[in-house]
Each structure stands twice: as C-alpha cells, then as structure tokens.
Specification:
- One of its GO terms (molecular function) is metal ion binding.
- Helix content is 36%, strand content 17%.
- With 525 residues, it is of the alpha/beta class.
- The mean pLDDT is 94.
- The structure holds ligand NPW and adenosine-5'-diphosphate.
C-alpha cells in the first residue's frame, strides 16, 4: 500500500515520480486477467483486507464502524472489510460494526455475495437506514459505488451518497468516493463535492485518472492511498500521474561556471495592456509572467507591453532586471525568432492583431489568456488557419495554457463540458493543433499529440487567485528557454518539459506557511 496524496516533494530525476493511470475499461481488463489467474475471491479478499487495515491504522480507537455498502463489488469490498473489522473489535466495550445495505442483494455479483456471507457469519449488524444523529459512528466506510458508476446516481443510492457527503464522521472511501466518475473526475450526483469531515480514499488495483483531476481531489479527501492488490498491470496506461522534480535545476546552474546569461535562454512576454483610452489596464499580468520567467532561471527576460496610448512605465521596480518595451518595439526586433515568446497575459483584445505575426515568426510560442481567446473556436469542422499548418510542418513548438473557460471557447462548447472530461478536452485540442496543451485547474492535464496525457499532482486551492496563471505561463516560458532543441524533439518530451513547469508551479504553495493565502506575487518571493 502506498500513499499518493499528500505527495512527498520529489528530489529524484524527472521521470522518477510518475504513476500509470488506468481508466475503468483498462481496469476491467486487468481485473479479469488477474481474477483468471488467481483462486476465486482472492482479489476481493485482498481488497477487503486492505480496506480493513487502512481503517484500523487511520482510526485505531474506532469502536463503532459503519460500512455503507452498494449492490455491486464495491459493496463487496465493504462487506468483507466489515467482516474483518468485526473480528478485530469483537469483545471490546462499545464495539459495533454495522452495514447499511443498499441495492438488491439477490442481484449481487458472486464475489460480493461471498463477501456478504462472510460478514453475516462474522456477526455484523445489518441496517436499512443511516444511524440516528446521536449515534454517529467513529468511522464510516463508503463502499456504495466504485468503478461501476458511469451515469447519474438514481434511486435510494441518491440519499445514501448525500448522507455520506454530509455526515460528520471520518470517512474512508473504497476505490473511489461514491459519485465520482473513475475516468474523468466528473461528479454524478447532486451533493456537495467537498465533505465536512476528514476523509481519505483507498483506491484498488489501479490508480484511476478521475481521482486526480476535475472534482477528484476535492471528493477524495485529505489523502489518497493505493493498493495494487499484488497485481502488476501489463497494460499501457491511459494517462500518467506526474510529479516531476528536477527543474529548475539550481545545482546544475551553480556547476556551470563558464555560463553566461546568453546561455540561459531568453523569454519575451507579450501582453500587459496599459490603461490607455479604455482606462482598463492589465500590465501586471505580463509583469508577473516576466518575473516568473526570470525567477525560474531564464537568462534575459523582455516584456513587450501593449501601450494602448498610455505612457510606458520606465521599469518594474519590484524586478528591475526585466527589460520593458512596447510590444511594437519587441516585434520590430529579432526577439520573436530567437526567444521563447509567452503571449497573451493581460493582452486584451489587442492581442488578436499580433497573433498572426507570432504564429508565423515564433518557433517557440506559449499562448495564454487573451492570445487563446484571439484564436477563436477551432472546431473540428473547419480548416485550421494556414499559420498552424505551417507551424506543424516546420516542427515548431506551441504550448497552450487554457483554463477551462478558455478551453471551452477554443472547442466551441461550454466550460461544464470541458470539466466533465478534462482529459478528453486537453487531448482533443492537442491533437487538433499539434500543440502541447496544459488544461489548468485542479489536476492540470498536459496533453500532446500521440502520447498519453499527464495529470499533475502538485498544487492546491491556494493557487486559485488572480495572476497565478500568468506566473505559470512565465515558468513554462523559462522551462522551454532552458531546453536545447534536441531535448524537445518528441511530443512526449515537450509534454514532460511543460509538466515540469506545471509541477514546479504547483509546488509553490506546498511550503506556504503565511497567515494569509499567497498572492501571485508572493509565489515568486
Ligand atoms: N471483482 C473483484 O474481485 C474486485 C472488485 N473490486 C471492487 O469492485 C468495484 C467495481 O464493482 P462493480 O463493477 O460491481 O461496480 P460498483 O462500483 O459496485 O457499482 C455497481 C453497482 O452500482 C449500481 N449502480 C451503478 N450505477 C448506478 C446509478 N447510476 N444509480 C444507482 N445504482 C447504480 C449497480 O446497479 P445496477 O446498475 O446493476 O442496477 C450495481 O449494484 C471496484 O470499484 C472495486 O471496489 C476491486 O476491489 C478489485 C477486486
Ligand atoms: N484548486 C486548484 N488546485 C490546483 N491548481 C489550481 C487550483 N485553482 C487554480 N489552480 C492553478 O492556478 C492557476 C490559475 O490560472 P488562471 O485561471 O489562468 O488565473 P489567472 O488568469 O488569473 O492568472 C492555474 O495554473 C491553475 O492550474
């Protein structure tokens, strides 16, 4: 059994911290393959044992244990855990193991029927409704739905799932929090996704993508544990969960004595509309991206501001090393050809006019915010603009960093649709544009053509404030600027590089100990 969340900060090389993610279809194949080579009920026995072991380790003094068991094999895991916990607490004062049984037991699959028989033989108490408020259990085990849920919850299970998500007792979820879609992190029931009590999830056999993106992290609780039930899946993963370290590599920079700023890579940020005639300024966004690129080790960082008729600031007093200029001046130079261009942060509508030149000139281009909005819908029914075709032919690198609404605009749908299947949304955009896509949010998904997507493990809700996306864009710019062309040769390598920057960005809040949540500027201190 391994704890995946909270993650330990990696010190190992980039590839050391990655775990295969298998969706429901792949997990079924693995389950069938394993079940075929093991004695009957072995997998469920191992699953029930793992659940009981973790429940005891987490709440060693629990005497009143409630298992909420559904009608399928997820419920089976719960029934077996109840049998084992009953044996453990039997004879202790106040001991009580109850199973709130849902579903039609006459339709239980064979493994679950066997597990239920074990529990009844062990003497667990079966109940048909939740315990009264006054008799709150010390710990609850959520075994209503696991892998078998792929549509809206119906019937009596609705109330049970709602109860589970509002009850005040610590809750251990078996395989998946009931209500969560294993593949997408979509939530299939009307109930608060963030429960009030401490909870953890023990996922079994495989790690499922839905636990780590969308609403997965919010529903799964403070910790996610994994038990492979002794089975090593010989099946290619649908995606990878990543926590790459190794960047920025400060010791390597210290060792590079003969280095100079020209070797560390240049970044040009284009955006940051100044408050001109419209009175609306977004200069800070470009400054944040520039500061982040500099902080992360880029040798020279230029910020080209969209002037909008307002006077240019002479410098960024917080980071005077940033070289400020107008966007026009930046574009009149050769910077777009040789620097990594990060375009769009606070760019406003003026970004649209600059975009064609950037697409045609910048071999390494990161498109964020208003640069994405300026792209317009790139729905599959229409031909891609010629500039995209040419970029692909030339093997140029484009990174898109949409948040869900920006992704929805690009896909011509709404953000709920994007959030309902973040992996699919990121993959679609990446394949369509031949680009690397970082779909931001809880569990940022990094997708590139022809390679399984990556789901980032670092970061948390402390990042949910204005400007943190600009910081990420700057970090990605710096990461690309640090790479020589050979190391970005494949789509998978480019995705890895972007994933390193996303992981470093998420890690910025991990050590935050301030009284207040950090602002985007605080992240760069
Ligand atoms: N076999 C083994 O040895 C191992 C199994 N393992 C465990 O099995 C789990 C998968 O079990 P599973 O395939 O039986 O699915 P599960 O999550 O229990 O759901 C099925 C039940 O839910 C019901 N139901 C579904 N949708 C519904 C809805 N919308 N609204 C209402 N009801 C709905 C459905 O009812 P039905 O659709 O049949 O009417 C049925 O009763 C997996 O997550 C893991 O915990 C692992 O430990 C490995 C070893
Ligand atoms: N709950 C969360 N968990 C992890 N990361 C988050 C969460 N909320 C926001 N973030 C991250 O914060 C950043 C916000 O970016 P964005 O929405 O573009 O903000 P802005 O445009 O104001 O800079 C993204 O990198 C996103 O992944």
């Amino acid at each position: 059994m391994e704890r995946i969340v909270p993650a330990r900060t990696p010190t190992a090389p980039a590839s050391a911290r990655r775990w295969p993610l298998h969706g429901s279809a792949a997990t079924r194949v693995i389950e069938q393959w394993a079940a075929g080579s093991l004695a009957p009920h072995t997998l469920m026995q191992r699953a029930g044992q793992a659940v009981a072991r973790l429940a005891r380790a987490w709440r060693p003094h629990a005497r009143h244990i409630l298992v909420v068991a559904g009608g399928g094999n997820n419920g089976g895991d719960g029934w077996l855990a109840a049998a084992l916990l009953q044996q453990h607490v039997a004879g202790l004062p106040g001991a009580r193991v109850q199973v709130w049984a849902l579903g039609d037991t006459s339709r239980q699959p064979p493994d679950a029927r066997w597990a239920r028989a074990q529990a009844l033989a062990a003497g667990v108490e079966v109940i048909g409704a939740p315990p009264a408020e006054a008799a709150q259990p010390d710990v609850v085990i959520d075994a209503v739905f696991g892998l078998g849920l792929s549509r809206r919850v119906q019937g009596s299970a609705v109330d049970a799932v709602h109860w589970l998500h509002t009850c005040a007792a610590p809750t251990l979820c078996v395989d998946l929090p009931s209500g969560l879609d294993a593949d997408s992190g979509h939530w299939w029931v009307e109930a608060p996704a963030s429960p009030p009590a401490p909870r953890l999830t023990l996922t079994l056999l495989t790690l499922k993508p839905g636990l780590f993106t969308g609403l997965g992290r919010a529903c799964a609780g403070d910790a996610i544990w994994f038990d492979d039930l002794g089975v090593s899946p010989a099946l290619a993963p649908d995606a990878w969960l990543t926590l790459p370290g190794g960047w920025p590599d400060v010791p390597a920079l210290q060792r590079a004595h003969a280095s100079h700023k020209g070797r560390r890579g240049d970044v040009l940020v284009l955006g940051g509309q100044l408050p001109g005639a419209t009175g609306v300024g977004m200069t800070g966004a470009a400054i944040l991206a520039g500061r982040a690129a500099l902080r992360a080790g880029a040798g020279r960082v230029y910020v080209g501001l969209l002037d909008g008729g307002a006077p240019m600031p002479a410098l960024d007093t917080g980071q005077p090393a940033l070289m400020l200029r107008t966007a026009e001046a930046a574009l009149a130079s050769s910077l777009p050809e040789h620097a990594v261009v990060v375009a769009g942060c606070g760019g406003g509508p003026a970004m649209a006019a600059l975009l064609p030149a950037l697409l045609a000139r910048a071999p390494r281009l990161v498109l964020d915010a208003d640069a994405l909005n300026a792209l317009g819908p790139l729905s599959s029914g229409t031909a891609l603009p010629e500039a995209w075709v040419q970029r692909r032919k030339a093997g140029w690198h484009t990174v898109l960093t949409p948040h869900p609404l920006e992704a929805a605009r690009l896909l011509g749908c709404d953000s709920a649709r994007v959030q309902a299947d973040r992996l699919a949304a990121a993959r679609t955009l990446a394949e369509r544009l031949g680009a690397t896509v970082a779909l931001k949010g809880s569990g940022t998904v990094i997708a590139a053509p022809g390679t399984p997507p990556l789901v980032n493990l670092s970061g948390d809700g402390l990042l949910a404030s204005a400007g943190t996306g600009d910081v990420l864009a700057g970090l990605i710019g710096a990461r690309l600027a640090a790479a020589d062309e050979a190391t970005l040769a494949s789509a998978a390598a480019r995705a890895d590089a972007v994933a390193q920057a996303v992981a470093a960005h998420g890690a910025l809040t991990a050590s935050w100990r301030g009284h207040w949540p950090p602002t985007a500027t605080d992240l760069l201190l």
